Amino acid sequence: MCIHEISRTITLEARAEGVPQFFVSDPLPFSQRILEGRIAQFKNVSDTNSPYIIYDRGIPDILAYMDSVGRPYGREFTDACRKFIYDQVFLLPPWEEIYIPDNERYENFGEALVIHDFLERTYKKYGYRAIEVPIGTVDQRVGFIMKILNEDNV
């Protein structure tokens, strides 16, 4: 079961309301909406019977993005990172050959590298040992993740 990224939806909703890049123009309210959405996602899957639940992005990602642009945030963000715990974290490094900015992903590749560094630091700060998924085909990446999950019996 894969829980999709909600920031794209929130970005598109804001654009429909006349805000071209919600995070750029108002990072804290954007991040608050992302936090609420990710907490809801976390809670909504608590009674699923799927053996694995993969979140496209986690709650600590919000802090990493805010830190990457030097914006402060309230205690509710750090409290959420401590309360809603993921069993395993996988990080997929930016891959220049396939990296394409789009209407919701506005960062250039250099900015994606900076954000990736903040993601690594933030997950480590909250006690995770993030496993980097090697570059490869989708099947190779899925195979790598499944091998880790089956080995760890997560």
State the gist of this model.
The protein has 154 residues and is mostly helical. The protein has seven helices and four strands.
In words, what does this structure look like?
There is one protein chain. This protein has 154 residues and is mainly alpha-helical. Helix content is 54%, strand content 5%. The chain is built from 7 helices and 4 strands; from the N terminus they run E-H-H-H-E-H-H-E-H-E-H. The strands form 2 sheets. The protein has a two-stranded parallel sheet. Strands 3-4 form a two-stranded parallel ribbon. Helix 6 links the parallel strand 3 (90-91) and strand 4. Helix 4 (59-68) packs antiparallel against helix 5 and helix 4 (59-68) packs across helix 6 (109-125).
CATH level-two architecture: 3-Layer(aba) Sandwich
Number of domains: 1
CA-atom Rg in angstroms:
16 Å
Instruction: Determine the N-to-C terminus distance.
Output: 14 Å
Count of helical regions: 7
Assign the structural class, choosing from mainly alpha, mainly beta, alpha/beta, alpha+beta, or little secondary structure.
mainly alpha
Strand content: 5-15%
| DSSP strand tally | 4
The CATH top-level class label: Alpha Beta
Specify the overall morphology.
Answer: globular
Largest sheet: 2 strands, parallel
The mean pLDDT is 89
Strand order of the largest sheet: 1-2
Q: Helical content, roughly? A: 40-55%
Listing every helix as H and every strand as E from the N terminus to the C terminus, the arrangement reads: EHHHEHHEHEH
Q: What key phrases describe this protein's structure?
A:
154 residues; mainly alpha; Rossmann fold; two-stranded parallel sheet; 7 helices; 5% strand
